[in-house]
Structures are given as C-alpha cells and as structure tokens.
Design a protein that fits this description.
- This protein is α/β, with parallel strands linked by helices.
- The protein has ten helices and eight strands.
- An eight-stranded parallel β-sheet has the order 1-2-3-4-5-6-7-8.
- The two termini are 17 Å apart.
C-alpha cells in the first residue's frame, strides 16, 4: 500500500479568501467551463485544512502551485506563503504566478525569486477552440512576447509549470527544446479532452522526448467527470509509459480535486493503478521525483 510510503504532494493550493482576492472563487458561480461550478471549494483553505484532508498519508512535503489569485496579488501570495513556510515548514516549494507575456515580467520574476521557497512559475495558458474549455481568450503561447518571457526563466533559476491543452503541445515543444535550462513540469497529465485521445497521445509524445519535461498526474476530473479507476488507469499508465517512472509525479491537486472526489479516492486509485510497479518506481512516483525535480532537499528515508 502506498499509504506506507513517504508522499511529497507535487500540486497543492492554499488560499485565504479574507486576505487575497481569487476571482475564480468569487460568485456568481456557473456549471459552464472546464471545472464545472467551483462553489463547493469557494471557502478559505489553509495548511491545517490540507493536512486534515491528507490524514492517513505520510506527507513529507508539499509544492504550492499558483492558486489563481488576482494577477496584481501575485507577489502578495508569494509573501504570504513564504511566511507560512518559515513558520510551519510547509509549503516546501512555491510555484508563483507571472504572466510571461507581460512586458515587465522580468521584474516580477526577480521579485519572486528572492523568496527562498520559490522554485518556479505557472502561467495557465489552456486554449481550446471550444470556448467552454478555454481558460484564455486566445492562444498566448504563439506570441513572441510569451516566448520571450519563457526565455527569461532560466536566468532566475526558475522552473515552469505548464498547464495547457494537448493541441498546444506540438507548438510548445519547439520553444521548450530551445531552453533546456528550464525544467518544465506538465500539469494534470496533459488535460486530455474527451474525444481527443489521439491528439493527447501525440502531444504527450512530443513533450516526452524532451529530457527537461516531466509530468504530474492529478486532476482526473478534468478528463472524466465523474471518473472511476477503470476510466483513468489507461490514461495514467500511458503517461508513465511515455515519460518513464523517473519523470512522473502523483499529486492531489487539493482542494480543486475535491470537486471530483476525496483525497483518499484519488490517491488510493493512483496506488491501485501502479500496484504492479517496483518498490523503487512507486517511491519515485509518490515522493522521490517531486523531491528531486522541485529541488526540495527532503530526507525521505
């Protein structure tokens, strides 16, 4: 059972709605869009709330990923999280927000990088021809300004958490290949769109050949809603087959994935899907890869 293994959660969100504004967690709520209604999670969620949800798992560390705060609050979110890390020892890494196409992005990258827990940046760039699935009004990854912002990450020692759709992957692969100094971590197993599995596999293959790309498995409800283990197991195993067990991480995506099931439901399913893997592979998937790729320096013994 993976519950007996150390777990480094590679994708966690925390928010204090009385402290920082999160537009996507603000009424009115709607069932339209890729998440469905987020009203059930539109309440303050702090470290102790996460630890309560993770009861029964040996959580050794967490990676906090940009939680969709108002863009002007990006640095305030980092400062809040760094203060928490200093006081509580978690989060162990911060993936902060910066819009890579902003002409002043270099200044913000430098400000984030001054915080010792900051390891990288996320700028959600999901674009899809179906506007109900898009997070952005157009595909900014095709813009020279966005590519220029991406090129600055390495000079600040920052990785990049990539949340995009498979139809964007082949175009992104060329940019990522030109910047081997930037570790890229693909979010939510590539966010396959139902009915577009061939596109998903082709896009994942285009990224998997790049040694500086890894992937997190989480967010199963983005692909199947509702989901079952039978739905997600082929998706998980294909992801690991493409990237190898040394470049894949399991993550809770809590509390967002609460929209799709409990902490135990997700993690126990990932456990069951990989029950036939070696002890070393499972240790890497549940903890070792996140510890290495996010440069946490944790003792997992």
């Amino acid at each position: 059972m993976a519950r007996g293994l150390p777990f480094v959660d590679a994708h966690v969100h925390l928010w204090d709605l009385d402290h920082i504004a999160y537009p996507w967690l603000t009424p009115p709520f709607s069932e339209d869009g890729p998440n469905g209604s987020v009203e059930p999670i539109a309440r303050t969620y702090l470290l102790d709330d996460y630890l309560a949800d993770a009861t029964g798992w040996d959580v050794r560390g967490i990676v906090h990923v940009d939680a969709g705060a108002a863009p002007q609050a990006a640095l305030a979110e980092t400062e809040w999280l760094q203060a928490m890390a200093d006081a509580r020892g978690m989060p162990n890494a911060i993936i902060a927000f910066a819009a890579l196409d902003d002409p002043q992005v270099d200044t913000l990258l430098a400000a984030h990088a001054r915080h010792p827990a900051v390891r990288g940046i996320r700028h959600i760039v999901n674009w899809h021809p179906d506007p109900r699935r898009s997070y952005t009004p157009r595909d900014v990854t095709r813009d020279e300004a966005w590519a220029r912002g991406f090129s600055l990450l390495g000079s600040h020692g920052l990785s990049f958490d990539l949340q995009a759709y498979p139809g964007q992957f082949s175009g992104l692969a060329g940019l990522i290949a030109r910047h081997p100094e930037v570790q890229v971590i693909l979010n939510h197993a590539g966010m396959a769109v139902p009915g577009e599995w061939d596109m998903w596999r082709a896009g994942m293959a285009a990224l998997a050949v790049l040694p500086n790309v890894a992937v997190k498995i989480s967010g199963m409800g983005f692909t199947h809603r509702p989901w079952s283990r039978a739905d997600i197991q082929p998706y998980i195993l294909q992801t690991i087959d493409l990237f190898g067990a040394e470049r894949v991480m399991f993550a809770s995506d809590f509390p967002t994935d609460k929209l799709f099931g409990s902490f135990a439901a997700h993690l126990d399913a990932y456990d069951a899907c990989t029950a036939s893997f070696s002890d070393g592979e499972r240790s890497a998937l549940f903890a070792g890869n996140a510890n290495r790729l996010y440069r946490l320096g944790l003792d997992l013994a």
